[in-house]
Amino acid sequence: MDPVRNPFAPGAGQRPPELAGRDRELDAFEIVLERVARGRPERSLVLTGLRGVGKTVLLGELRSMAVRAGWGAGKIEARPDADLRRPLSAALHRAIRDLAVRHPDGERVAEVLGVLKAFALRSAPADAKLRDRWQPGIDVPVRTGKADSGDIEIDLVELFTEVATLAADLETGVAILIDEMQDLRPDDVSALCAACHELSQSRSPLVVVGAGLPHLPAVLSASKSYSERLFRYARIGQLDRADADFALLAPAEREDATFDVDALDTLYERSGGYPYFVQAYGKAAWDAAPRTPISAADVKMAAPEAEAELAVGFFGSRFERATPAEREYLRAMAELTDGRDEPVGTSGIAEHLERRASSLSPARDSLLKKGLVFSAQRGQIAFTVPHFGRYLLAQA
């Protein structure tokens, strides 16, 4: 098979050639866009799931939908070592520019940009030296008195209100998309929830779409109790058999190739239906096959190549971030689940390692902060990366 024509695209955040199995989420967001633009009440959206299920890709697709609908849209990736002001300022700057090309009142646009600039400049302490101050690249005078108090909760409500009013002038909306939302600092999570709450009450045309690991709802709930009702939650998981087959067959057939039924059986067994793995195994199988249709024998021949790539780029990079004590904890999880994607009790890990549970708390807490595991429910822990347990057992 010609490797140049290989349609499959395993990569972090890279859109697959066929976005299979996400029609429900796309249709739901289409309704959100229509309702908000018409002044109807609608909740912001939170997508949750393990790594490799396509949350980042879906966020990108939702942003594209918003832009096609005439909305202003900006996307950021949260980081645990940075506050929200800088990346949010850049995202809103882009969203305002999307609206500015159609807004008839240039002075009004400049006023909102001035408020945004005031908000952005508060990312540096008031006593910071000039060289340490971040310049946001917004070429309008600062408009003081709004969104510049230094209290992120107050400032975010005022800023969102200004931007939403600009969108309302055009009978459209603004979408702010936040990837890795669980990594936001606690104060920023609280401020974001408060701002979304305020805007939902006033039916302002601004929505936040967040994506994160399965414990993100718990992070939001711990910040504001009403967050359970503030957001609409959608769990993003692996593809079912029909969608996984379609993700392989549709792009292949556009290149005048196909997979036989046994090959599809083997690919689903290997990938578990996780979109990233579907692309990885599909790409390797294409390159290994001498001709179409791609067979189960081709898939089995290609599997070591796909697994080697996953071991380096998907599993290994995360395992390398763990300390020896954390690796011991991870291996114990893998052994207790026999490599399955299942939660395991923290007390069972302590018994397995013949250690006191309290002595393992630092390793567990560090793994939680690094995003390698999440608390599935009280007293239980699970991998954030699918098939990670299987990878650890193979390494052992």
Automatic annotation (TrEMBL):
The keyword Electron transport does not apply. Pfam families: AAA_16. InterPro entries: AAA_16 (IPR041664), Cyt_c-like_dom (IPR009056), P-loop_NTPase (IPR027417), WH-like_DNA-bd_sf (IPR036388). Keywords: Heme, Iron, Metal-binding. Transmembrane segments: none annotated. One of its GO terms (molecular function) is metal ion binding. It comes from Pseudonocardia hydrocarbonoxydans. This is ATPase. PANTHER family: ATPASE DOMAIN-CONTAINING PROTEIN (PTHR34301:SF8), DNA-BINDING PROTEIN-RELATED (PTHR34301). Residues 168-265 form the Cytochrome c domain. Residues 1-20 are annotated as: Disordered. Gene3D superfamilies: P-loop containing nucleotide triphosphate hydrolases (3.40.50.300), Winged helix-like DNA-binding domain superfamily/Winged helix DNA-binding domain (1.10.10.10).
